[in-house]
Design goal:
Its main location: cytoplasm. The structure is a single chain. The chain is an alpha/beta fold and 227 residues long. Helices cover 30% and strands 19% of the residues. The protein has seven helices and nine strands. It has helices spanning 19-26, 63-73, 92-98, 117-122, 142-153, 164-167, 201-219; strands at 2-7, 31-36, 49-50, 60-61, 79-89, 103-107, 127-132, 186-187, 190-191. The protein has a five-stranded parallel sheet with strand order 2-1-6-5-7. Strands 3-4 form a two-stranded antiparallel sheet. The protein has a two-stranded antiparallel sheet with strand order 8-9. Helix 1 links the parallel strand 1 (2-7) and strand 2 (31-36). The structure holds 5-bromanyl-1,3-benzothiazol-2-amine.
């Protein structure tokens, strides 16, 4: 998979080149390109934003600059992803769906966002998804891109060690992952649940499912199927 990110704060994306993702790049599983939006500006101040039509607070990112950046970075077969608080929710299912894409391009907005015509124009030739990381507002899209890239690329075979761990992920079966334990058996007078020491794999699996259901009921009842 190739991933390109257009941003005015390239340094935010440095973590993509570190640790596991850095190893996946070395292994040829991933390619990253980070592009400074200002290389497509032409005024002496390298302006990327302007006042919003209709008034209101803040600034809006200029269509001309973004249009030329996406023309240069985003080919017709790529999926263009725009992190925005106004987007559709990013979920594990989104990460699964994106993980088989050949090329993702992320457009990192700042300020009050990007002129909508940038995405209306892009949609004439590429698939565009405006996606939210959650019901909160960041300063820019870069942090959202880091989270979305990690959630997506970890699902690509070979990027993380144990593929079995995906099956146990939270959300992979629609439920939250239950509690985990490791040695010692007793720690600060707290004991590991005896079933986990029983060696009975059927009982362990049943207990873990019950724990996932209980945790999901408690924390995310919205994830439970309708009765
Ligand atoms: N939750 C999110 N907040 C923001 C803010 C900006 Br500005 C751009 C993208 C996103 S995604």
């Amino acid at each position: 998979m190739r991933i390109d990110v257009v941003t005015i704060f390239s340094e935010y994306l440095e973590p993509l080149k570190a640790a596991l993702l850095g190893k996946a790049v070395d292994a040829g599983l991933l390619e990253f390109g980070v592009h400074d939006l200002r290389q497509w500006t032409y005024d002496v101040h390298h302006s990327v934003d302007d006042a919003p039509y209709g008034g209101g607070p803040g600034m809006v990112m200029k269509p001309q600059v973004w249009g030329e950046a996406l023309d240069a970075v985003c080919p017709d077969d790529a999926l263009l992803v725009v992190p925005t608080p106004a987007g559709r929710p990013f979920t594990q299912a989104t990460a699964q769906r994106w993980s088989i894409e050949a090329h993702l391009v992320f457009a990192c907005g700042r300020y009050e966002g990007i002129d909508q015509r940038v995405f209306d124009d892009a949609a004439r030739r590429v698939r565009v998804e405006e996606v939210s990381l959650g019901d909160f507002v960041l300063i820019g899209g870069e942090v959202a891109v880091l989270a979305m890239v990690e959630a997506t690329t970890r699902l690509i075979p070979g990027v993380i060690g144990n593929p079995q761990s995906h099956q146990d992920d939270s959300f992979s079966d629609g439920l939250l992952e239950g509690p985990s334990y490791t040695r010692p058996k007793v720690w600060r007078d707290l004991e590991v649940p005896p079933v986990l020491l029983s060696g009975d794999h059927g009982k362990v699996a049943q207990w873990r499912h019950e724990q996932s259901l209980e945790r999901t009921r408690d924390r995310r009842p919205d994830l439970l199927p309708d009765d």
